[in-house]
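Hi C.,

You asked whether I'd gotten around to modeling the 135-residue construct. I have! Everything is below, sequence then structure, no commentary in between.
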Amino acid sequence: MRWTITGEVLERLKAHACDARPRECCGLLLGRSGHVIAARPAANLATSPDRFELDPQAHVAAIRATRGSDVGVVGFYHSHPHSVPVPSQSDLAESTYPEALHVIIGYPTASEADVRAYLLRDGGYVEVELVRIEG
């Protein structure tokens, strides 16, 4: 499977992840099936710096803001500030939206962000191709 994401949104995700370091960041992805066209940062309510808990009020606000349009919440993003962007065991255990795209911004090196996308399938994650588009 393949999803597209605008270059502007991709850069915003990286900036949010960088600004939140050393804590994890999180937020919502907006668009249509197969296409991410916007992102909404959300507060990370987790007390641990290496976990995230998306503020449910941000999720409700995103749903309300997109009601009546052809855009909706299509997924979520979070960061791994000190490791590769691969879902952790806690990411898997806490995933409750199997139809949603899950984007992780990781830092396999101290300064270079790597962004990968996944779908929840058969009790695990399957990586999907994330294609940057302009627009």
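If it helps when you're writing up: Helices lie at 7-20, 56-66, 89-94.

Thanks,
B.
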